[in-house]
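Structure (tokenized):
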């Protein structure tokens, strides 16, 4: 038994010695994998009952050396040689898979493995690892490992690691687990406790990850997916308030992308955020209507303004402001805005007064609306009129007047579709179909060009 210990120690030295050639390191890793695979798959290394003497000592020594072997091979995942990296990755993954058969998956060893996989900056390793995280033990250990990694690498120097962390974290699906957590909260079974701990780990891991430095592109991607893939599965989504409010306060693209998540916290989780609508109103600028995400913004605006509890002055202010900016917007955006205003009038009848002002009303001759006001309450929109809709009935694009004129007619209570997918290309094709014949051209092709006829206009 002593000779076996000596052989294992020598093989381990071959792995840890940095001066050894790659082929020797790969052979040493393969040897250690063969040795420990045998012991891990039959639990011999972890069961010491009924043994004594040298056999017991050897088992205890193998168990104590296992962590050292695990750490030494894990470090080779970040080696410069792709062959060594692959050998180390597959060996450590095999060790962890074997652990799940007879013993509980170690959180510490899983965290070490995840740290080296992420610091290797290998997208292939991260993708392959994400496919392995399927059962409950793996999900819990992986979440705790990512949380520990995010806390350790929270400086600006680790910004390049954030996309890999995000990919691995996003791959951990707990949608079914979170639904079971709600159903088994009153139960105290082992399964319910495991599910509870996984949901708790999911909650704390995302909060810790959001503190990592991120590029602008990744920041926007996170905000885009947060309301669908993260918030519904968190135990306490209110912990995201600081992150979302800070993003919303940034304005621009970040503020726009934070809207959905913030609105969910307000409506479903009773978040008290009085400045939500004033800041949303402030985001309505002329430049917004020329950005690629204007359709997304108007769709969210349509959702945010549906509540019948909103005051009339607030809805009128939004309707007036989008109508004013629509005068300078592209045709396909104008159509979406007009349909938004149509829905606002159907949901909030008090807004209709802005359309039905008589010719003698003061707002027709001098608009009291304050376009530069940042607070909807100070915009005086209810005293104004939507004269912009009348201007749009004379728009050069035929599709715009057709929609604008519908606002003059009596309305039913059925909301209209905004038509967010109807862009420039669709409008252009519809416009071209209106031509029933080709434009007139010169019938006889000229054979010569008499320069003298144009001598007073052109210099040849």
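Design, position by position:
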């Amino acid at each position: 038994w002593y000779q076996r210990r000596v052989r294992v120690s020598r093989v381990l030295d071959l792995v840890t010695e940095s001066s050894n050639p790659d082929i020797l390191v790969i052979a040493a890793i393969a040897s250690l994998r063969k040795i420990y695979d045998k012991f891990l798959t039959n639990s011999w290394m972890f069961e010491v009952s009924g043994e004594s003497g040298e056999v017991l000592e050897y088992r205890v020594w193998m168990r104590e050396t296992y962590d050292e072997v695990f750490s030494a091979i894990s470090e080779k995942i970040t080696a410069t040689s792709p062959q060594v990296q692959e050998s180390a990755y597959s060996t450590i993954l095999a060790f962890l898979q074997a652990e799940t058969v007879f013993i509980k998956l170690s959180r510490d060893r899983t965290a070490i493995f995840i740290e080296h996989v992420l610091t290797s900056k290998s997208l292939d390793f991260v993708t392959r690892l994400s496919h392995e995280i399927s059962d409950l033990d793996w999900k819990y250990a992986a979440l705790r490992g990512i949380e520990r990694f995010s806390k350790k690498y929270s400086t600006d120097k680790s910004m390049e690691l954030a996309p890999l962390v995000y990919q691995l974290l996003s791959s951990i699906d707990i949608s079914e687990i979170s639904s079971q957590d709600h159903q088994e909260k009153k139960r105290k079974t082992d399964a319910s406790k495991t599910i509870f701990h996984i949901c708790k780990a999911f909650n704390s891991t995302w909060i810790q990850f959001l503190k990592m430095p991120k590029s602008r592109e990744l920041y926007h991607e996170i905000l885009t997916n947060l309301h669908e893939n993260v918030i519904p599965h968190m135990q306490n989504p209110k912990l995201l308030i600081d992150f979302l409010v800070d993003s919303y306060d940034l304005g621009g693209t970040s503020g726009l992308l934070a809207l959905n998540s913030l609105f969910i916290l307000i409506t479903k989780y009773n978040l008290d955020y009085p400045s939500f609508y004033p800041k949303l109103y402030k985001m309505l600028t002329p430049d917004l209507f020329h950005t690629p995400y204007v359709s997304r913004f108007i769709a969210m605006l349509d959702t945010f303004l549906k509540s019948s509890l909103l005051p009339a002055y607030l809805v009128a202010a939004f309707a007036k402001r989008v109508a004013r900016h629509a005068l300078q917007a592209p045709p396909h955006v104008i159509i979406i805005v007009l349909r938004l205003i149509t829905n606002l009038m159907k949901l909030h009848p008090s807004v209709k007064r802005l359309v039905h002002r008589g010719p003698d009303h003061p707002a027709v001759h001098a608009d009291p609306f304050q376009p530069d006001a940042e607070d909807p309450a100070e915009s005086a929109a209810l005293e104004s009129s939507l004269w912009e809709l009348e201007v749009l009935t004379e728009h050069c694009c035929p599709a715009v007047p057709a929609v604008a004129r519908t606002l003059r007619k009596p309305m039913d209570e059925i909301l209209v579709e905004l038509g967010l997918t109807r862009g420039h290309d669709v409008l252009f094709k519809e416009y071209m179909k209106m031509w029933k014949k080709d434009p007139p051209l010169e019938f006889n092709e000229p054979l010569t060009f008499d320069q003298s006829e144009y001598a007073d206009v052109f210099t040849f």
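Reviewer-requested clarification: The two ends are 105 Å apart (CA to CA). The chain is about 60% helix and 0% strand.
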